[in-house]
Amino acid sequence: MNREDFTLCDYKLSLFRAEKADSPLIIFNQFSDEGEAAFLDLQKENYKDFHFLAIGNLNWERDLSPWPAPALGKEGDDFTGGGEKYLDCILSEILPLAKEKINGVPEFIGIAGYSLAGLFALYALYNTDVFTRVASMSGSLWFPGIKEFCKENAMKILPEKLYLSIGEKESKTRHPILKTMQENTEDLLKHFKSMGIETTYEVNPGNHFQDVNLRCAEGILELLQ
């Protein structure tokens, strides 16, 4: 396994280089190690060779939220809306360095993430044309205003492939915001399909915290098909 770990802008980066030149590059924002674990599982199954960049040590509520929003509960932190600034860091510093370290020119560059990182992956489409394939696994599409934002704004590029997933029990909650997740996801699914985007949607067993690594692997695999 050709792996290199480094730090940039206080983020911890793990780059797994493919053996084959010009292989696809997948960017994955992770909470702990769910992206890395999914990547290693895919490698064990000898799936298509690809470069994988896992980004960690994120301030979840700051870096991945598109705009400010209140915390979901008394013990949570407010979302401070640093998504645009963090995306700029990816585009101006992290991605150029990663491309210097890999062999050849990526066949395509995709972005993927779970939960709030899945929301960020979708948000990125409206701010850059760099990512041509996107996977949002159990993406936080309950986030206030995101459905309206996606419908009222134009993407910088229509992705070649878009993957959405959700756990079947994620919206079965009394929380007035979280309970909108499946409704919002399926509403946006229809919207994206109406735009002619090749979109795959999967409803997985369990709640938000079940089979995270497996769900991530399935989303990444879909981008590589």
Automatic annotation (TrEMBL):
UniProt entry tagged with the keyword Acetylation: no
Membrane-crossing segments per the record: 108-126
UniProt keyword annotation of Magnesium present: no
Key words, A-Z: Membrane, Transmembrane, Transmembrane helix
Record Pfam families: Esterase
Superkingdom of source: Bacteria
Name recorded for this polypeptide: Esterase
Lineage: Bacteria, Bacillati, Bacillota, Clostridia, Lachnospirales
